[in-house]
Write a structure and sequence with these properties.
- The protein is mainly α.
- It has 2 domains: 2-29 and 91-201, AhpD-like, CATH 1.20.1290.10; 48-77, no CATH class.
- 63% of the residues lie in helices and 0% in strands.
- It has 10 helices and no strands.
- 32% of the residues are buried.
């Protein structure tokens, strides 16, 4: 039985690697999948509920589309932002680890806005441009150390099976405590949903943003 499970896992991993490679070559679009919004960003004058959400996130008179689109449904948005703010501000995952997870699941889901929004932060915590390109190829690409490959595998497995394999879980547990292990799952799950939200609602790039590093 154990041998059978191992064989199945190896088959699924190979399938994922093949699918990822095909996705890299098939994906020619670097930006959002829709050319225009399905639901627009809220504009000023804001309602009181919208102001409560957006005023703290306004920078130089501008609010990112991820927030201003969400504010079309203030109660939903407020509930979601509690979780979002936890993962961005209170998570105990090392920021570099967290960003590797986010960038990988963003790529797997075609979440170009998500990728563009996090690429600057990823660079600021030591993820190089070469590594950003390598994220597209996944854990099997030459050049990753064992730990980075483990993080990418965790994102891949959650994307493919909604389950981290025993081998990957044990590798994570060698370094992470219980809370951090949970945060891995919740981070990938959150940014899986974020890609669905941004893609389906047609949230467009901010000025000057760059998408997936395809063909660079």
């Amino acid at each position: 039985m154990q041998k059978t499970r191992k064989t199945i896992y190896q088959f699924l991993l190979i399938t994922l690697l093949i699918a990822t490679s095909a996705h890299v070559f098939a994906q020619s679009r670097t930006g959002p999948p829709l050319d225009k919004p399905r639901i627009p960003r809220v504009q000023k004058p804001w309602t009181d509920e919208q102001r409560e959400i957006l005023a703290p996130r306004e920078r130089d008179g501008h609010v990112l589309g991820v927030w201003s689109t969400c504010a079309q449904a203030p109660k939903l948005c407020n509930a979601w932002l509690v979780f979002t703010d936890y993962l961005l501000q209170e998570s105990t995952l090392p920021i570099r680890d967290r960003e590797l997870l986010i960038m990988r699941i963003g790529w797997l889901n075609g979440g170009a806005y998500e990728w563009a929004a996090h690429s600057g932060l990823a660079r600021s915590v030591g993820i190089t441009d070469e590594e950003l390109k390598r994220i597209l190829l996944g854990a099997g690409a030459p050049g990753w150390n064992d730990w980075d490959a483990t993080l990418l595998k965790a994102a891949d497995e959650l994307h493919l099976n909604a389950l981290i394999s025993a081998a990957t879980w044990n590798a994570l547990a060698d370094r992470y405590d219980t809370r951090q292990l949970m945060e891995v799952v919740f981070t990938v799950g959150q940014y899986n949903m974020v890609a669905m939200y941004l893609n389906s609602l047609g949230v467009q790039f901010e000025e000057g943003w760059e998408g997936f590093p395809i063909g660079n």
